[in-house]
């Protein structure tokens, strides 16, 4: 049986728009949340159902016959936002690119067109009709297995197909009874009134018993007649008429009073099935008219890159049922020569040395490479095991005389290090180049980057990776030069990758026994906290469930504590149980403090303590985290397995956890932490005179800030004043506004406004910098760091104020945070060069980089001398207009460290 899919375009567009965040936008700032959601559902439907025919229907803006008969029909609905309207034409463009015809007709809704097309399709015994929609209005059209409904449960990925059985499971009714059901219950979403006081359960029970609205009113009419006769006949009064559920005298009265409205509501809810439409299956034969070139062009223009990848995951798009455009290549013309003899490998190595440049892809099994236009594939273990070949390979990789081109050179460097080969400086990493050119990417795979650059799909043959890497390098080199990113690429990002490879391979020693002890202590504390919380709350519940916690804290007695503190509401209107909101209620009830402590301990346990044993190498006893160099938009490093960037620092448990990070025997851990790095950079970039002067004098910046704002001498600043100043100093770097400062400081809204106004007046350079960055982002589309790193903000041109505000906040922060990231990387590079060039490789190892801190492992007898030198390197790595200050500590574990006086 062939499949015809009828798309309820109007319902799906609205569902997608409200299901996905409004922050999704195209590179030009056009909102795309509805476009993405609609298209994602379309692709899922094509993948799951594999339709032979597809047609789409949409509502027109003009009134329908229902509006003419009932002026209040859908009148309560708010006007759809402009951001939704702007996306409907884009969705229609995508449908046309898919070869899907669109049907609209004045006076009728999309549902009426679907009903008419579905009715017509029943005439063909070889056609099954699937209605694809975002709501349940069309369930009344379900008919055996001839007509079913494909719709959404949650979001835009959780779908369900309704046949007659599924309809019955949901309502206890047959599809054809749903109009009768709505005649009684009404439909608030369409402003269909129904019978006042009749809800879903009562309406369902009535139709289940009486089958239709007509039979229901026939029964009521009979009862009414009998009741009337009974009241007039004294003999009948003795045997009072029994009214059986679900009917009752009160309900009968309501039904009789609203009989006309019930039948009118049923009429409004009934989908028309005989609209005259010029339709044929030939027009709906979408595969004949599908244009993949146009689809991919639209997806790229709208920034829907992840959807391009989904096309290849759908069999219909990869089984020859569509013609690929000429520009898309699925195979490369490169002939890869397999090298299986020593002399052949040696000959190819000579070609590399003569050409002084090659592109490559290395794994533990194969070494694939291209020299000029000749490509080779060698067995890597064969090279490693042959003394002569290994020496040549080592010379090629380590020497700066040969230029090496690859994708993700950190991974290659790490593999080479495991064989005792250090990857030399001269090279080009297409992954890092893509990151510098667009740090907002979510996918840095070679396939994705190559497609975006050339609109060509690459071969799935990994042996041919060097071909694509070489071609990509040529294009990226031009772009890096044009956008003045060459220096940053060559002097910061590329060297950092090689250092990270060494850090990952080295790892940090972990005291497994300390972790085991901490795990037991935490389990005991959690158990005790649970008992305390249940006792204080007066009931047992799932503390980790926001819903249950909300009911316990804010619900009425006796089951709830009925707390009345001022906490904000979530997007769905529920009272928030976020940590920041619960902190406001600490004085309201002792259970709050216990809950906050429980959350802190539970997070540490589940995020770090429990997973830790499985992450420790059984061979080395060390933790080998993975540093992600392309994981943030600002240039900051991220880490995973585990994420060491988020280990609590100031909490007692966080410190206990850090005690498990220990130095190797004969070594000490030495921490070098930049003091207030981002604030110093803010002073430098903004050229704010007061802030620069405070740093030059070595003053406490938060005390100085408080003194300026409150108009007192520094010695008169108390801890509350300093705390508010500190919140402002750091918050302003992230574009914090009045509401943010109010939440963080606990002051009134008016006081928060006064504080920010005073701050921006006293530190006018900061205020000027903030305005300049917003203006630059609007004018140029990007902002940059001191070293030229860029971040683009296409969303700053959005028509949605909240998206623009978010972009402005990020534009203010990025140059500061990004410059801090660049400086820390430069410090890593210079320190690494010092240790390697001075022959101290076995005396000092860089282990971790966490925010503005570098953690080294240093030979105990060399700590003072090496720490002195590294501190000097870090404080002079780049000359700002304010001094850079580094705090140095050392100890046998990461928590218990003593300050080093240098």
TrEMBL record:
Enzyme Commission code(s) on record: 2.7.7.7
GO BP of this protein: DNA-templated DNA replication; double-strand break repair
Database matches in CDD domains: DNA_pol_A_pol_I_C, DNA_polA_I_Bacillus_like_exo, H3TH_53EXO, PIN_53EXO
Keyword Chaperone: no
Residues annotated as domain DNA-directed DNA polymerase family A palm: 654-862
Superkingdom of the organism of origin: Bacteria
One function term, GO molecular function aspect: DNA binding
Keywords: DNA damage, DNA repair, DNA replication, DNA-binding, DNA-directed DNA polymerase, Exonuclease, Hydrolase, Nuclease, Nucleotidyltransferase, Transferase
Catalytic activity: DNA(n) + a 2'-deoxyribonucleoside 5'-triphosphate = DNA(n+1) + diphosphate
Enzyme class: transferase
Name of one Pfam family that matches: 5_3_exonuc_N
UniProt domain 5'-3' exonuclease: residue ranges: 2-287
Family: Belongs to the DNA polymerase type-A family.
PANTHER family according to UniProt: DNA POLYMERASE I, DNA POLYMERASE NU
Stated role: In addition to polymerase activity, this DNA polymerase exhibits 5'-3' exonuclease activity.
Name under which the protein is recorded: DNA polymerase I
């Amino acid at each position: 049986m062939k499949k015809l899919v009828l798309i309820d375009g109007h319902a799906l567009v609205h569902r997608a728009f409200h299901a996905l965040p409004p922050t999704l936008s195209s590179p030009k700032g056009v909102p795309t949340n509805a476009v993405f959601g609609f298209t994602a559902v379309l692709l899922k439907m094509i993948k799951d159902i594999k339709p032979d025919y597809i047609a789409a229907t949409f509502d027109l803006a003009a009134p329908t016959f229902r509006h003419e008969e009932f002026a209040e029909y859908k009148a309560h609905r708010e006007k759809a936002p402009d951001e939704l309207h702007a996306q409907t034409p884009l969705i229609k463009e995508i449908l046309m690119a898919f070869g899907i015809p669109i049907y609209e007709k004045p006076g009728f809704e999309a549902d009426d067109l679907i009903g008419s097309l579905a009715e017509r399709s029943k005439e063909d015994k070889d056609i099954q009709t699937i209605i694809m929609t975002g709501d349940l209005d069309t369930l009344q059209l379900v008919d055996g297995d001839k007509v079913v409904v494909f719709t959404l449960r949650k979001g835009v990925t959780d779908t369900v197909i309704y046949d007659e059985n599924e309809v019955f499971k949901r309502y206890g009714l047959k599809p054809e009874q749903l109009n009768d059901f709505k005649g009684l219950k009404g439909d608030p979403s369409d402003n269909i009134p129904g019978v006042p006081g009749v809800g879903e359960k009562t309406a369902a029970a009535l139709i289940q018993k009486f089958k239709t609205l007509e039979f229901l009113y026939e029964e009521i009419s009979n009862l009414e007649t009998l009741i009337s006769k009974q009241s007039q006949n004294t003999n009948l009064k003795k045997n009072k008429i029994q009214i059986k559920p679900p009917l009752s005298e009160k309900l009968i009265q309501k039904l009789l009073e609203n009989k006309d409205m019930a039948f009118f509501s049923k009429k409004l809810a009934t989908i028309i099935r005989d609209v005259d439409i010029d339709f044929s299956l030939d027009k709906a034969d979408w595969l004949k008219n599908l244009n993949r070139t146009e689809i991919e062009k639209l997806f790229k223009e709208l920034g829907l890159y992840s959807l391009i990848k989904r096309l290849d995951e759908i069999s219909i798009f990869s089984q020859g049922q569509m013609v690929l455009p000429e520009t898309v290549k699925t195979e490369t013309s490169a002939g890869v020569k397999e090298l299986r003899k020593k002399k052949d490998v040696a000959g190819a190595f000579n070609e590399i040395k003569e050409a002084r440049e090659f592109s490559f892809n290395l794994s533990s099994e194969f070494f694939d490479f291209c020299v000029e236009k000749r490509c080779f594939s060698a067995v890597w273990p064969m090279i490693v095991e042959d003394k002569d070949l290994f020496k040549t390979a080592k010379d090629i990789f380590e020497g700066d005389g040969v230029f090496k081109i690859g994708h993700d050179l950190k991974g290659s460097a790490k593999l080479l290090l495991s064989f005792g080969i250090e990857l030399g400086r001269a090279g080009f990493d297409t992954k890092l180049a893509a990151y510098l050119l667009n740090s907002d990417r979510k996918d840095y795979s070679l396939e994705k980057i190559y497609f975006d650059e050339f609109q060509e799909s690459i071969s799935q043959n990994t042996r041919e990776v060097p071909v694509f890497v070489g071609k990509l390098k040529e294009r990226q080199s031009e772009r890096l030069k044009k956008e003045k990113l060459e220096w940053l690429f060559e002097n910061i990002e590329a060297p950092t990758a090689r250092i990270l490879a060494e850090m990952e391979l080295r790892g940090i020693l972990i005291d497994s026994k300390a972790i085991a002890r901490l795990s037991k202590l935490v389990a005991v504390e959690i158990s005790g906290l649970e008992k305390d919380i249940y006792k204080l709350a007066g009931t047992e519940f799932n503390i980790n469930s926001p819903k249950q916690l909300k009911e316990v804290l804010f619900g009425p007695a006796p089951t709830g504590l009925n707390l009345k503190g001022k906490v904000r509401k979530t997007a769905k209107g529920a009272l928030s149980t976020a940590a920041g909101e619960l902190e406001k209620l600490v004085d309201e009830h002792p259970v709050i403090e216990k809950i906050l402590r429980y959350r802190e301990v539970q997070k540490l346990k589940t995020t770090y303590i429990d997973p830790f044993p499985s992450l420790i190498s059984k061979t080395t006893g060390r933790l080998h985290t993975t540093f992600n160099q392309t994981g943030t938009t600002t240039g900051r490093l991220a880490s995973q397995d585990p994420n060491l960037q988020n280990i609590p620092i100031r909490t007692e448990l966080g410190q206990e956890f850090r005690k498990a990070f220990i130095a190797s025997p004969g070594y000490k851990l030495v921490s070098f932490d930049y003091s207030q790095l981002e604030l110093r950079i803010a002073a430098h970039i903004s050229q704010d005179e007061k802030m620069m002067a405070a740093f030059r004098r070595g003053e406490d910046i938060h005390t100085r800030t408080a003194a300026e704002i409150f108009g007192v001498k520094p010695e008169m600043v108390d801890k509350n004043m300093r705390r508010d100043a500190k919140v402002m100093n750091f918050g302003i770097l992230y574009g914090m506004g009045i509401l943010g400062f109010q939440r963080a400081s606990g002051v009134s809204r008016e006081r928060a406004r006064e504080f920010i106004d005073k701050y921006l007046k006293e530190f006018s350079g900061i205020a000027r910098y903030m305005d300049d960055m917003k203006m630059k982002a609007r004018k140029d589309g990007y902002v940059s760091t001191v070293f030229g790193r860029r971040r683009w903000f296409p969303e700053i041109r959005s028509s949605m104020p909240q998206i623009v505000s978010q972009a402005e906040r990020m534009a203010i922060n990025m140059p500061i945070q990004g410059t801090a990231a660049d400086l820390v990387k430069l410090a890593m590079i210079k320190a690494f060069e010092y240790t390697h060039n001075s022959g101290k490789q076995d005396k000092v190892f860089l282990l971790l980089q966490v925010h503005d801190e570098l953690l080294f492992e240093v030979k105990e007898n060399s700590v003072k001398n090496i720490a002195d030198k590294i501190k000097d390197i870090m404080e002079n790595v780049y000359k700002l207009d304010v001094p850079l200050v580094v705090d140095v500590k050392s100890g046998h574990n990461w928590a218990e460290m003593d300050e080093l006086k240098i």
